[in-house]
Design a protein that fits this description.
By secondary structure, the protein is of the alpha+beta class. The chain contains five helices and five strands, in the order H-H-E-E-E-E-H-E-H-H.
């Protein structure tokens, strides 16, 4: 089975076209090598998917006959993504909350209140 079709079947991408585009951009690695969309996938292969700034690591258990329901996805793949990848995503989300771009002008009343409440917490 093609890698773009496999990623679509196990619901990592909403459409097959999105999976194909991710392969072309180099966001998909198969056995530590960048994979083209037409690359074949076999059981026991290791796939690394870079999506939303998280590197998901998968092991192929079996090949699905077609797109499967969300409850059946675990039959066809094993997710070996480390917990630290998700923790880094949480930290990144918190850092964006308090970041103001330079040159955006004076803070609004809401911005000023948020800044004041941030300093009061410490």
């Amino acid at each position: 089975m093609r890698i773009d079709k496999y990623l679509w079947c196990v619901r990592y991408y909403k459409t097959r076209n999105m999976a194909t585009q991710a392969c072309k951009k180099g966001q998909i690695k198969l056995n530590d090598a960048v994979a083209k969309p037409s690359r074949e996938v076999y059981p026991t292969d290791k796939i690394e998917v870079r999506k939303n700034q998280i590197s998901y690591q998968l092991t192929v258990n079996d090949l699905p006959p077609n797109r499967v329901g969300a409850k059946l996805v675990d039959i066809y793949r094993t997710d070996t993504t480390p917990k630290s990848a998700f923790e880094a995503q949480e930290l990144l989300k918190y850092s964006k909350d308090y970041y103001r771009k330079k040159g955006t002008g004076r803070p609004t009343k809401k911005d000023r209140r948020d800044i004041d409440s941030f300093y009061e917490e410490e």
